[in-house]
# Entry
Amino acid sequence: MNATLPQSETREIPPPPQRLLTYFEEGGRTIGSWLLSTDHKRIGILYLYSILFFFTVAAIAAALMRMELVTPPGDMVSSETYNKLFTIHGTTMVWFFLIPSIPSVLGNFVVPLMIGARDLAFPRLNLLSWYLFNFGGLLAIYAIAFGGVDTGWTFYEPYSSAFSNTHVLTMVAGIFVAGFSSILTGLNFIVTIHKMRAPGLTWFKLPLFLWSLYTTSIILVMATPVLAMTLVLVAAERIWGLGIFDPKLGGDPVLFQHLFWFYSHPAVYIMILPGMGVVSELVTCFARKPIFGYHFVAFASVAIGLIGFFVWGHHMFVSSQSVYATLVFSMASYLVAVPSAIKVFNWTMTLYRGRIYLDTPMLYALGFIGLFTIGGLTGLFLAAAGFDVHVTDTYFVVAHFHYIMVGGMVTGFLGGLHYWWPKITGRLYPENLGRLAALVIFIGFNVTFFPQYVVGYLGMPRRYHSYAPEFQVFNVMSSAGASVLGVGYVLPLIYLIWSLKHGKKAPPNPWKATGLEWQTPSPPPKHNFAQTPIVTREPYQYSPEIQEELIHG
Amino acid sequence: MANSATAVAEQFDDMPQQLEAATLGMWTFLATEILFFGALFLAYIVYRHTYPQAFADASRHTKIIHGTINTALLLTSSFTMSLGIHASQRGRNRALLGFLLVTMFLGCCFLAVKGLEYKSDIHEHLVPGRHFPHEMPVQSQIFWFLYWIMTGVHSVHLIAGIGLLAVIAWMAARERFSAHYHNPVIVSGLYWHFVDVIWVWLYALIYLINRH
Amino acid sequence: MTLPIFPEEASKIAEQTDNLYWGLLCASAAVCLLVFTLMGYFLLKYRNGKNVDRKPVHLPEMKIEVTWTLASLLIFMCFYAWGAKNYFLIERPPPGAMEIDVVGKQWMWKIQHPEGNREIDQLHVPLGRLVKLTMTSQDVIHSFFLPEFRIKQDVVPGRYTTEWFQADKIGSFHIFCSEYCGTSHSRMVGNIVVMSPADYQTWLTQGQPGNTLAQSGERLFRELGCSGCHVGKSVVRAPPLEGLFGKPVPLNNQEVVTADEAYLRDSILFPAKQIVGGYTNDMPSFSGKISEEELLQVIAYLKSLGSQTPVREQ
# Structure
């Protein structure tokens, strides 16, 4: 792109600028203009900064935990501290990193571009979302910095209201506020995708990333309010010593679990569906092929979202809920796995007769498919009620959800970030370092979390500060892997920042991808499109027979 | 919302798109509110099923006069809100302003009556905790816990609604609405009606159990 | 079958859980093999630069989708059924089990044998006997996990939960608390010691417990004043308790409930919750006046009063 400025204003009829200003230039260049921007692209970047901060906090907590767990006795930190570490890790990762990651960063940036709109439906609401998120995050950081929280991210009663002596209220308030940020983002996406699609862009021409985000948004707006109310109840109990979950009054501590998991199970689909959406984009682009089974993949997203509301009791098989409830939830848990399996098969078949380019985003997409498959299969283990009795609340579950959340979601996030990096920043990241980091992350991840399946089955419970000596070898392996994984995460941080100044300038469509977001300059101008585009083609009109030259850094 | 009566916000292509988006946005928001209150209603249902006698006993101590007056106030306010919407559809900003002010006033009256009721409840120690009357069944504290939270959260929503209507009233005072552009009034009306409907449910569940 | 990466199998249930694990592992390995091999093959064959036929072929998309959807569903349903079957076995104790009480509290396990023996963080049981644990918590939710038996059950304040097993191996195995319960959650551990029946008898008598659980319960029944209303003629009409345990109880609202442990506990702590038909709400609450262990002792006593399953003498 040529970097020339518009002609001076002394001419009577200024010629048109040789290129449109990018969104970095138009809309103000001061920090203030960024902090008050309603431009979805700027807000996406603001979110990126925020979640990076929270990821760092949560990762440090994890590092300390894994260091402690190298030896069986709890000798590095006190039990109180350890309990605070895993609580900080869980709450921060779930609410302040994973849930916003793809929707609020990549979604905010890409959704209007993908549907041919100038912005989201409610840009000011979008900015409010970011401020709510950070305000909630501030409360969480306060709780962390001034003594921590030790309830676990699940806040089980009656421990969290009547027994814990930590900053439960502040943390709960932080999550409550951040929850509204989620709800407003979801609302914005729903209305945008319904009402602002470019002419010709029917539902079944939408890129699958949008189907995933749409379903995610439905879950966000439906499930988060229940969490909000549940946290209000916990707070009320804690502040006023009332007793809605207090057994001494006849209250039911298990009711809390029902209310909590009613949100928190759909929440995990909030966390994984966007990653799946990204993978659909990456696999089609880097195999140069239309997705196999578009309709099935689209409906699978919706099915996961819908069925996902009916499985929460699988977190409660040993909680004293009735046997019949367990059977129903076990069945539903198997049913929800079917659409996920369909997606994996469809992605695999997309590779058939494709032309495969192993660029960094594709490596992440392939990593996602592999790790999600393993994590998802172990979900089937957990869905078997008789099996779950043994492994629930052990490291087996910890391994399962990390395979999905980290092996799946974080991998998907990194894949999407690399894929859209040229569009967002106008720069190309260094491809060889990208591939190296992807490999290091993949290896580090597996060494960290695979042993946890084994030690979980052996009986090591989760949230254990000290543990029986026979579990040590697996913990050592896991901690060793974690250090490799840590290096793997630092690499992209370094080279992506490096690329902002020194990376090659990106053309509008370095990956020769289909999709409206690639029809604008890199980076796009503030209003995305000079004119609303008109869509006539099906999505993913790639031709594997043509050898394209993909541009990378 | 538009800067003037006819300008379309820059992210939209045309006015109909903007209006549809705003309306869908409000309906979606109301759906989230249903889930928000739904959690409370669920807790209520669970505990009422477990302790029917304690709940019936507790309900008898609620102030039915206050509750009924409040129900009448809110239902009337929904009516005046509808009249306001009707006026806005005809571009009659002054009439709209009048109806909005009446609606807000009725909402404030609700809060005043609620405040008096709360004061009376506190005086009778109908608050879960150490000072709860011993002669009442201990599980009725669960009823009262839910009473305070449900009516409290509802009142917060009502206050927000009054604030929202104040903004609309300000716009009406500046003659912003017309037959062509009055969507914000409709959308705010949706919210107001929703708050009213929630109250009707609360009225039945709190005040009307086992009244002979 | 055990491997160094499996815990020991100390019961039949453990064996059954391991079998299910093997089944799941094999099915998963097969799926992974299929998917990863296919992916790997496609990646290698169709890599950019390779000169292969990439002409799109018409695949029967619908048939393929339906096939793998139904295949997945079928396999999943098999494991659902297998898991459900195992779950029923785990949750439904066979009749005739010896009953041991467990009270969890931050951060220890208090065990009471029917013969009166008490233990902390240790559970001695005889080989080959059915054992049913009746458990509750004094404070927060805990969970009683026996990895070598492949069972666990949450221990919840305000209610009784049960867990059963039949040890078929002598030895000392782990007890872990597996529901986070505060500071020393990871130290709320102990040992379950399986002994030969003869050794167990010896252990019982050496423990010199004094009173059996039921005898302690009887003492409390008198000391707390229960006998004042429930035994013989008294001013206040109270339902008789002989033979009550396990029987149906008609309430004053036409409902009929069973007099199980939970009913007895609720009657003592929350008497107003369920009034027996034909009686009035006169019983005072003993909430705060009786500990969880004492409640279990009183319940053991009530169970021994001419009930269908009297407390077994060992």
